[in-house]
Amino acid sequence: MDRITNTEILRYAPDMVFITESDGRIVFANDNALGVLGYSLDELRTKTVLDISPVDWRDTYRASLERVAADTQRHTFEIRLVSKSGQKIAMELHVVRLPSGMLYGSCRDITERKQHSAKLAEAYKHLTDLIETIPDPIFFKDGDGRWLIINQPAKQLFALENIAWHGKTDMELAAIQPSFRAAYEGCVKDDALAWDKGSLLVTEELITSLDGDQLTMEVLKLPTYHADGTRRGLVIIGRDISEHKRAHKRIHELAFYDPVTLLPNRRLLLDRLGQACAASAHRQSHGAIIYIDMDHFKEYIGSFGDDLLREISQRLVDMVQVGDTVACLGADAYVVIMNALSPTLSKAADASMVFAERIRAGLKQPFLIHGKQIRTTASMGISLFLGHEEIAEILLNQAQGAMALSKSAGRDIIHFYDADIQSGLEKRSKLEQELRIAIEQQQFVLYYQIQVNESHHAVGAEVLLRWQNPERGLVQPTGFIGLCEEIGLIVPIGLWVLEQACKQLREWAGDRSHKDLVLAVNVSAKQFHQSDFVHQVKRILNETQARASHLKLELTESSMLSNIDDTVSKMRELQTLGVRFSMDDFGTGHSSLHYLKRLPLDQIKIDQSFVRDVTNNTHDATIVKTIISMSEALGLNIIAEGVEEIAQRDFLYQHGCKDFQGYLFGRPVPLSEFEKSLHNNPIKTTNQA
Ligand code: C2E
Ligand code: MG
Ligand code: MG
Description:
Blueprint: H1 6-12, E1 16-20, E2 26-29, H2 31-37, H3 41-45, H4 58-70, E3 74-82, E4 88-97, E5 103-109, H5 111-133, E6 138-142, E7 147-150, H6 152-158, H7 170-176, H8 178-186, H9 191-197, E8 201-208, E9 214-225, E10 231-240, H10 242-256, H11 266-283, E11 286-294, H12 305-319, E12 325-328, E13 333-342, H13 345-364, E14 367-369, E15 372-374, E16 378-385, H14 392-408, E17 414-416, H15 419-440, E18 444-452, E19 458-469, E20 473-475, H16 481-487, H17 490-509, E21 518-522, H18 525-528, H19 533-544, E22 551-556, H20 557-561, H21 564-575, E23 580-586, H22 593-598, E24 603-606, H23 608-612, H24 618-634, E25 637-641, H25 646-654, E26 659-661, E27 669-670, H26 671-677
Parallel strand pairs: 16-17, 19-21, 21-22, 22-23, 23-24, 24-25, 25-26
Antiparallel strand pairs: 1-2, 1-5, 3-4, 4-5, 6-7, 6-10, 8-9, 9-10, 11-13, 11-16, 12-13, 14-15, 18-19, 18-26, 18-27, 19-20
Helix pairs in contact: 7-8, 12-13, 14-15, 17-19
One magnesium ion binds near residues 605, 607 and 641.
């Protein structure tokens, strides 16, 4: 230390050093100060510090000088000095009064530091502006849980706009702002979790908005740390996902619930049924499913069907026990799952039957829909289950099969599932598949059965459908027509038959010996009641150029009477083209004279069941006689089908029936054979009548 003097220390100090009188007159400035300011020491000695300060800062400095001179403390100021060339330099000044009364000041150029912090401030402003533009609520708390940033959407959410929230903790905020209190409970509680986790925490919170709406918020909490590992703060971002949640819920409902009744749909039912099976295995206790199908529901569809369905489902829901499921399979079919009935099969069966009876009785009580009383009944099927091995889908089919049995046994009945029924159902579904293939591969053929007059001359034929199945061989219509009607396949098949018959008529029209033949085509109820039936017949007649007068459509009583107005108008329209109508299977339905009078019929066909015993059963004989005289009274032509014996033919003839069809004259045969057979029964020509 001996080798350097104090003056040297001052002179070469890295900071700028000034020594002034107490009034600011400069006594000494070190080299650094001279270099920065551009003055010589002599020049400076003629000035006070105020002289090298910006004019507008001088008053402040003067006051500061007084403060420094008044005590022996060290003071720090941010000042500006002006160099000889007029450049303004930002400085940090440390100043102290020396024992001599002089002032010692050391300054450091802080221009760079100032620029840096200005940049930082700008960046901070950018950031806060950005945060404000984000529509999601954003919060920032420091490491002690004090609020530092809350953006506008967040302020709105908790009504913090007019609240001094800055620097407050959650608890302090909750104390002054009730709207925040609720959130404090729900949303803020996860802070600890986020800190524990040390990384992003995503939660969902239910928040009641100021208008009382329940909002679902997805909340992201991200803890941040200082370099030394201490807590810096928590970034919290909320997002209102209520709409998304609602959409999600709706999608779920659509996928798993029936849209009309809001009951579980088939998908959810199968799922619950799977669970019920597993639970029953676990408890070793039987459960049951009850398949409920409303009877004659079609009558209500369109008018107030949906309201009725909702009422029915409500009634079912009211009847079942907590934990049992009621599902709606669409249309008018419901399923109830009953759990834990009994470990004993017979007791479980009894219990399910008792309950099913209650449902049956319950559904029979009239419903009041739009002020109208509606009475319905239900057909039901029950299937019991125990254990894993049951497959939900099979169980459901079993119950449905049992229900179908109730339907066919006259409706408003309850049946238990039975294995035989099941195999019947399976066969049916196989048949259905095969029939669809049959259409594609055109496996259907037409047979012709002769119809003759009193002189046994052919007047025409009934066209009868056969199915040439590669495995089953030739299948008679009784083996598949019923199913085709049920599943709607009869419509395309029926049109095909009609088309074939018309093509044949057209072919015969050009042939002298066949031109008078009339073809009778069976038309099923379903086909006839299609809204475009008349249009289709016209189209086929047009396309084939067949003569309408040689086409006879056979309809059954039941199909004619099911919608009499529709029937009459369709018949009339076709009749104007020349098409004729025959009532098939007459006597087997609920024939009513009243209706018969209204129908524009050409012919009545006595059903073969009356013909069969007409010669040895007086009852049948009476019926046949009545039918004949009634037809005469109505001016209708009459034909008997199923005529196998001469005695039957004679009886019919004696009582006034002039046309016949039956094995006595010919069985249904393929076209070529039919045409050949005409030699035995020469055709009745128009002038022979
Ligand atoms: P259906 O219209 O009453 O036809 C008469 C049925 O009686 C035919 O049976 C015929 O083979 C049979 N049959 C005729 N004469 C005699 C006889 O002397 N003795 C006996 N025991 N039976 C006789 P198939 O061909 O089996 O037809 C049964 C039913 O299938 C038909 O009854 C008709 O309802 C329906 N069907 C047949 N073809 C068609 C069609 O193309 N469309 C529609 N919708 N139904 C058809
Ligand atoms: Mg027929
Ligand atoms: Mg018939």
